[in-house]
Amino acid sequence: MQRPGNFRCFGYLVRGIKFGMLRSLEIALGFLTVFKVRVEPPPDSTEITGSAWTFPVVGAILGLLLAAGHAVAVMCFPASVTAVLVVVAWVFLTGGLHLDGWADCWDALAASVPLKDRYEILKDSRVGTFGVVAVLSLLAVKTTAIAAGEFSAVMLFLAPAIGRGVMLIAASGAVHRGDGMGALFLSALNKPMLRWVTGITVVLALLGGWKGLVALGAAYLGSLWFRRLAESRIGVINGDVLGGMCELSEAIVLLVACASP
Predict the structure, then answer these.
(1) Are 174 and 237 a contacting pair, CB within 8 Å?
(2) In a 3-state reduction of DSSP, which class is residue 237?
(3) Contact at 8 Å (CB) between 258 and 148?
(4) Is the pLDDT of residue 36 over 70?
């Protein structure tokens, strides 16, 4: 006969695991979005990077908000206006975190300068002509895809989730430089965490049926291409490149969503 004390210990263990999972989600939510999530005690860099396994879940939360906003807006406005409002809300909810990385990447990737100079451009916070064009092009693709007549709200929900999951999956094993957050996340991306990220991302993609899986595969290939391009043109992967991979993945998911069957 098992003693009651053993059941209490098991209960404490389960509650501890739940608390840890919730804390990781809160940390990631505060890091990836504009939501001011108060986490006590404040997390250190190890905890922040350790929360990366919840990134697809944070993306799903963003996706739910965007899909709900789309459902409300489409009842009041034309499809084109609704699409603009959704994309604006998308940028606002994320604080433009990954969009900024996308812009910085293209300033560096498109520059006709030696490799070492491209890395310096990448670290420069100022946005140049290539960065502006890249941002405008990306926002145009997202907006027109959402405005498409046959667009699926389920795929809008999936885009942020797949983007944040694929960003980490495709970056696994990449060479990084420095001690920025991008380098810390890549260092913390071990096999158990990668399995969690992959599993959550695939399960979420299944909600979109065959299109969800196609979008996941296409987003992964697109992110992998962007990683290889950055490695060849810049030499390393940093936080800006990770952000660019996320933005590209989101756009690919939306393109798959509005593509003809």
Answers:
(1) yes
(2) strand
(3) yes
(4) yes
pLDDT tens digits for range 103-156: 988 988 888 877 777 877 877 778 888 889 999 999 999 999 999 877 788 999
Rama region for 236: left / alpha / beta (φ>0; ψ in -120 to 50; rest): beta
The DSSP letter of residue 173 is T
From the list 150, 156, 140, the residue with the least C-alpha distance to 79 is 150
Instruction: Give 3-state DSSP helix, strand, coil % of the chain, rounded to 5.
Output: 80, 0, 20
Using alpha carbons, select from 100, 123, 99 the residue that is nearest to residue 111.
Answer: 123
Q: Which of 170, 143, 87, 137 is nearest to 255 (CA)?
A: 143
Which is nearest to 116 in space by CA: 235, 232, 228? 235
In whole angstroms, give the CA distance from residue 256 to residue 145: 9
**How many other C-beta atoms can be found within 10 angstroms of the C-beta atom of residue 195?**
11
Long-range contacts of range 171-176, CB-CB < 8 Å, 24 or more positions apart? 171/223, 171/227, 171/237, 171/241, 171/242, 171/245, 174/227, 174/231, 174/236, 174/237, 175/231, 175/235, 175/236, 175/237, 176/236, 176/237, 176/238
Residue 2 φ/ψ, nearest 5 degrees: -85, 140
In the predicted structure, residue 19 carries a pLDDT above the cut 60: no
236 within 8 A of 111, measured Cβ to Cβ: no
What pLDDT is recorded for position 17? Answer: 41
Q: Tokens in use for 212?
A: 């969800």
